Amino acid sequence: MITLAKLRLWHRWHSNPQLRRENIPWKKWSVVLYPIIVAAVVTRLAACGDRSKPATQIELGTVQWTGMDSQSSILSTEAFKSLAKEALADISAPGNRATEVKIAGHLETDEGNGALTLEAYADVAQLKIPVKAAVVATGSADSPSSVKDLVKKGLADLSRAVSNLLKLVDAPPDALVRALDSAEPDEQIFALHLIGQRRIPGAIKAIGRRLDDPRAPVAEAAAETLGLLGDASAVPLLIASIKRHNLRSEVRAIEAMGRIGGKEARAYLEMTATGHEIEEVRRLSEHLLKQLGQKNSHPDM
Questions:
Q1: 149 and 6, same structural domain?
Q2: Distances (CA, A) of 15 to 9, 91, 137
Q3: What's residue 83's pLDDT?
Q4: What is the pLDDT, as a whole number, of residue 37?
Q5: Which residues of the chain fall short of a pLDDT of 70?
Q6: Could you tell me if 141 and 19 lie in one domain?
Q7: 3-state helix, strand, coil in the chain (%, to 5)
Q8: What per-residue confidence (pLDDT) applies to 162?
Q9: What element of type H or E holds 57?
Q10: Which of 11, 65, 237, 276 could bridge to 208 as Cys pair (CB 3.0-4.6 Å)?
Q11: pLDDT, position 108
């Protein structure tokens, strides 16, 4: 269901090490080290006060910086905490909201070169969805100073990425629709979630184009958003997005149709409930048909 789609997005970083490294520009590593950074950052915005003071107050939670050998001691935990606090101090959500930011980091080195992947999850008050951003910083990692510079570069990029996403929180509908064509998948996904949460009309075709995005998280967010909007005109787009021998695309389309309902969606679900070759898909379709029947019997559900 929709909850499963959200879990697939949320756990993508943590559940599959290969996916965590898929965007790193090196295919093979002769020497691989795995320092892991995990930081919990709490940002609270001041409602008012002296403008000469920082707009945010950052408190860092537990930070772990570990590796397989002495390489992990090149940058101490305290040094990373200091760099993170400085980089994230500029992150501010619109209005008077409290934001908690969790950072996961992964550093790989090979012959003095490093690739640092950082990913942030921010919970913003009054939002039902997390703000998620990821960046990859590459550079020299052959000395304490070069590792420090690489981490500073990555944290600065991450801060900018999160700040750009937070600007979308109060963006007008047309700006959110334009964001669907962004080159940044994190921005596309967040805009899709906001469109669905705010039930913005008139975006069905723009969302439908994202159903064929080769990046699965973007396509899944698009299908989820169409389900939330509940517009029957999206059903043909969902059916057209189903790719042959691609169970993932079919399941997300079926889930969205189960949310939307209507004659065309029901007809497709009835077909898959009785004739699909995979038992799990038949059961899912039967379950969704049952839910649609309950919804029709009790419109206020």
A1: yes
A2: 10, 27, 22
A3: 81
A4: 35
A5: 1-75, 77, 90-99, 296-301
A6: yes
A7: 50, 20, 30
A8: 87
A9: strand 56-60
A10: 237
A11: 80
Residue 101: strand pairing partners = 41, 122
The answer to whether 128 and 88 have CB atoms below 8 angstroms apart is no
pLDDT tens digits, residue range 12-35?
A: 434 444 444 444 333 333 233 233
Quote the tokens at residue 261.
């309902």
Q: Are 116 and 233 in the same domain?
A: no
Domain count, the chain: 2
CATH number of the structural domain spanning residue 193: 1.25.10.10
Q: Given this model, what pLDDT does residue 208 score?
A: 96
Residue appearing with tokens 């189903």: 242
Q: Where do the H-state alpha helices sit in 43-112? A: 77-88
Which residue bears the tokens 């996961």?
Answer: 104
Interatomic CA distance for residues 132 and 292, integer angstroms: 32
Partnered with residue 139 across adjacent β-strands are 114
Based on the fold, state whether residues 135 and 177 are members of the same structural domain.
Answer: no
How high is the pLDDT of residue 57? 44
Query: Closest Cα to residue 104, out of 78, 135, 69?
Result: 135
Q: What percent of the chain has pLDDT over 70?
A: 69
Specify the pLDDT at position 26: 33
Last residue of one domain, picked from the residues 118, 149, 166 = 166
CA pair distance 211, 253, nearest whole angstrom: 9
Write down the H helix ranges in 67-184. Answer: 77-88, 144-166, 173-179
Helices (H), 167-234: 173-179, 185-198, 204-209, 216-229
DSSP 179: H
Question: 252 and 284 share a domain?
Answer: yes
Parent domain of 14: 2-166
Residue 180 CB neighbours (<10 A): 22
- For residue 234, the model assigns a pLDDT of 97
Kindly give the pairing relationship between strand 98-110 and strand 113-124: antiparallel
Quick one: pLDDT at residue 275?
93
